[in-house]
Write a structure and sequence with these properties.
Elements lengths: L10 E4 L1 H25 L1 H23 L2 E4 L3 E6 L2 E6 L3 E6 L2 E6 L4 E9 L4 E2 L7 E2 L2 H14 L10 E4 L1 H21 L2
Antiparallel strand pairs: 1-2, 2-3, 3-4, 4-10, 5-6, 6-7, 8-9
Helix pairs in contact: 1-2, 2-4
Length: 186
């Protein structure tokens, strides 16, 4: 295990803007909830909190949660609330269009919202005409290397599922919001 709790060899690709967006959302939510406590007290803050948490949940799902996770045995792609896992032997090809696309052996194409994306070359300041390889191309190379080096046992079936913890959190926030409306109108 690594120091961050992931097994050895696991690599996660996310949109770089996702971490920034979730950081801003956390700071904004804490500020708004703290301001509500200071101005109106804990009771009123608890009536306001589900709306702030709902906005935070939307930012979290749209900006941060989508990702591509690879290891020696296969891939897990999470696009918003939908999760797809499969072994490397299920992959027929990997493409990098506007985003990473896996073509699977069942004939479907799986676009990855949170994985590497196509971008132009990055220019180094101060050097004329000198450019590095874009991050999306480097990530694609790493993913293709894992695919090519996959053992014959990496043939896990394609499993599509929902992100149950996120749906449960949404349900709790909606119930809290309904209770807040009922309490405020009582």
């Amino acid at each position: 295990m690594n120091h961050d709790g992931r097994p050895e060899g696991v690599r996660i690709f996310r949109a770089p803007s996702g971490l920034f967006a979730i950081g801003i959302a956390i700071l904004l939510a804490l500020f708004l909830l703290g301001d509500a406590v200071v101005r109106a007290g804990w009771g009123r803050m608890l009536l306001l909190a589900p709306w702030i948490l709902l906005a935070f949940w939307i930012v979290y799902e749209n900006a941060y949660v989508s990702r591509v996770q690879i290891d020696d045995d296969g891939v897990t792609v999470q696009n918003l609330l939908r999760r797809t896992s499969f072994g490397w032997k299920r992959v027929r090809s990997i493409e990098l269009r506007w985003q990473l696309v896996f073509v699977l052996d069942d004939g479907r194409k799986l676009s990855c919202y949170g994985g590497p994306a196509k971008a132009g070359p990055v220019r180094r300041p101060g050097r004329d005409g000198d450019s590095r390889e874009p991050a999306g191309i480097r990530a694609l190379s790493e993913i293709e290397d894992r695919w090519e080096a996959a053992p014959d046992t990496a043939d896990a079936p394609i499993i599509r599922s929902w992100d149950l913890p996120a749906l449960l959190a949404l349900g709790a926030i909606v119930i809290w919001a309904i209770a807040a409306i009922l309490i405020a109108n009582a």
